[in-house]
Amino acid sequence: MLTFRIVVLPGDGIGPEVVAEAVRVLQTVSELSSDFELKLESHEFGGCAIDSTGEPLPPSTLKACQEADAILMGSIGGPKWGVNAKVRPEPGLLALRKTLGLYANIRPANLASDSLLEYSPLRPEIAKGVDMIVVRELIGGVYFGTRKEQGVAPDEEVAWDTMIYSVQEVQRITRVAAQIALAADPPLDIHSVDKANVLASSRLWRKVVTETLKNEFPQLKLDHQLVDSAAMFIVSNPKKLNGVILTENLFGDILSDQSSVIPGSLGLLPSASLAGAPSAPSADFKPTSGIYEPIHGSAPDIAGQGIANPIGTILSAAMLLRYSLGLEKPAKAIENAVRKVLDLPEAGGFGLRTADLGGNVGTKELGNRIVDIL
Amino acid sequence: MLTFRIVVLPGDGIGPEVVAEAVRVLQTVSELSSDFELKLESHEFGGCAIDSTGEPLPPSTLKACQEADAILMGSIGGPKWGVNAKVRPEPGLLALRKTLGLYANIRPANLASDSLLEYSPLRPEIAKGVDMIVVRELIGGVYFGTRKEQGVAPDEEVAWDTMIYSVQEVQRITRVAAQIALAADPPLDIHSVDKANVLASSRLWRKVVTETLKNEFPQLKLDHQLVDSAAMFIVSNPKKLNGVILTENLFGDILSDQSSVIPGSLGLLPSASLAGAPSAPSADFKPTSGIYEPIHGSAPDIAGQGIANPIGTILSAAMLLRYSLGLEKPAKAIENAVRKVLDLPEAGGFGLRTADLGGNVGTKELGNRIVDIL
Ligand SMILES: CC(C)[C@H](C(=O)O)[C@@H](O)C(=O)O
Ligand SMILES: CC(C)[C@H](C(=O)O)[C@@H](O)C(=O)O
Questions:
Q1: DSSP A348
Q2: Is A166 in contact with B157 (Cβ distance < 8 A)?
Q3: H/E segment holding residue B132
Q4: Which ranges carry the Isopropylmalate dehydrogenase-like domain (chains A, B) (predicted)?
């Protein structure tokens, strides 16, 4: 029997509420299986850690994360630790990403159930069938290049940042995108997004993506999109970008957020940040550390009311099983259970809706239903 | 009687066809007025200029543009001068922008007529009432900072670009946004977009925008949006950003293209690129040089067929009258005429539709109708 160690970081605001449901789901699949066991342990991170230790990422939390097989996170931040606070939670997140080497951010955008079409800001015929996975490089580019603030010599009236990529950084994120494309049957197309008509870093990006895929994954289909044009397609015809959208850190920040509103509620979507390419769920599976978290924030306005949507976090737990532990079967089972609670009765489902989708089902009740189905 | 010199750059593909209609519209308002006269002269620019002179921006064209009161452009480029061509049209455009100092790109995104709601990829209730003007800094930032290509020493495996802004560059574009906000009654809100939680250039941007508006335009309302969050709103709730969206070059490239698909056809939208803040159309009006062009490309697939939508170019001509010549009245008259050809008969209009909107009205016929209405 395989034993996995999962670190849980509930965080702030609605984080603890949604994480509690995902934890129950993980405990359930663990109890149901005789092949593997999940050992879950909770640690402080974010605003709550600032309150109790003075820093968002206490050494004990970092150490536990470094030793874990995977990390499940809720959300961090809140008005108490806002722009004017001395110590803020966000640097803790950036430090955790960088220290764990989580260079691959994976964000699917799709409708878990066609019954969600009515919530999309896009016309149903445009939203129906959208199925994109944004693979964003997460610890390079203009986020981590050298910068100079205003007020610093020599030219105090000027500020700058460096958008920088190396061949090796682009190769490794391209391999992650390729593995994800290959995990689907038939393999997904890869749409690489850059601004190669202007930027040198984008020309390197385009060249390395092209060569890496040609040499190592010649069976995959690749096209290149300029970032301005990709931003248009995500609104006008997102299905054109179905498959894997492979892009650098800043463009990925913008495009993944843009595509995440297509399903109608941020509460529905999961994410993964990985330290390596996920290997195929097979005999030679190699575990990859990663943080799994819903894409929504800590939503302080509804925290403590028991009404937050736990689905993004529960689907993050499914990604954790798939990508970090190689457990495809329970991952699929969770995803099917989520579809079932969302589908309308005429499609064999329960049609449950939390407040973000205009319903009145609570966080716990939704979690209960998913546990029951499993 | 005031005389203005307008340089016309028809360009490539459908450029000459759509420009021909805008020229007729300008000639019509000129003939109808006893206050001003427009002198129009055509020059080669883009692919056609490469064919006849070997370069996209011949010295004679540049000279005419420098001496003109304003420039009306069609569109440039095409497969004949594509990625693999030795000389390409796009550098001619970037050079023209830079040489003329056109630092302010103005792109309205709105529905010229509610009858266009059915063409929007957004749900009608979300698209209805969208009225944004993107004010994009056009000759700074990562487009014009120092860069290093891959393969160049010292570190050949790395490429980088510099995103750089000075206080003075941000001040002047902020003033343009403010003038545009003030031209409306009541004045428009300003939404400044940056990534100040990560980038030093964005922190400078946010500080300078805040101070410039506070000191010089205290009557205007300002908020700050992160670029990822703005990209979400433009899809989920674009009216939240109604008013002026003020942003730097790269973010403006992405967000203006993203918002331009809301009206349902790129053929409908105009743009202006200015060398200064437009002054109020009053006695002390100061002319500002500028290039006015539709946002669409040269569409080689439909060139020469007489079916392209001339509305984006005709509305660009209206912007030319307003911003470069201070002629608000004929500008409004053109915009009203455009609304009338688009409005459905039940709303007192003609409901004319070119092919991009699924209709079969030709370029010339649409131009005729607008001239007739004027
Ligand atoms: C908080 C911020 C620095 C972060 C980012 O831009 O990476 C966030 O927007 C995200 O996408 O996780
Ligand atoms: C052609 C390209 C360099 C240009 C830009 O990015 O500025 C275009 O996308 C635009 O927006 O006018």
A1: T
A2: yes
A3: strand B131-137
A4: 5-370
Domain residue extents for chain A: 1-110+265-374, 131-146+158-261
Interface of B with A in 212-251 (CB under 8 A): 227-229, 231-232, 234-237, 250
Per CATH, the homologous superfamily of domain A1-110+265-374 is Isopropylmalate Dehydrogenase (3.40.718.10)
Q: CA triplet A131, A132, A134: central angle to 5 degrees?
A: 160
- Rounded to whole angstroms, the Cα distance separating A50 from B194 reads 27
B161 touches chain A (CB under 8 A): yes
The CATH homologous superfamily to which domain A131-146+158-261 belongs is Response regulator (3.40.50.2300)
Mode of pairing for the β-strands spanning A270-274 and A243-247: unpaired
How far is residue B180 CA from its own chain's centroid?
Answer: 14
- What distances in angstroms separate CA B25 from CA A132, B287, B335, one per listed residue? 44, 21, 11
pLDDT tens-place string over residues B41-72:
999 999 999 999 999 999 999 999 999 999 99
**Which residue reads 């293209």 in tokens?**
B257
The reply to whether domains A1-110+265-374 and A131-146+158-261 share a CATH topology is no
Q: Which residues lie closer than 8 Å to A31 by C-beta, 6 or more apart?
A: none
Extract the tokens encoding A300: 């302080």
Q: For residue A279, what pLDDT is reported?
A: 64
Tell me the per-residue pLDDT of A49-107, one tens digit each, with 9 for 90 and over: 999 999 999 999 999 999 999 999 999 998 888 767 888 898 899 899 999 999 999 99
Among the listed residues B69, B195, B292, B356, the single catalytic one is B195
Each residue's pLDDT tens digit, B217-258: 999 999 999 999 999 999 999 999 999 999 999 999 999 999
Chunk chain A into consecutive blocks of 10 residues (it has 374) and report each block's average pLDDT, rounded to whole numbers: 94 97 97 94 96 95 95 93 82 91 96 91 97 97 96 95 98 95 94 94 97 96 96 97 98 97 93 83 67 94 96 97 92 96 93 94 96 95
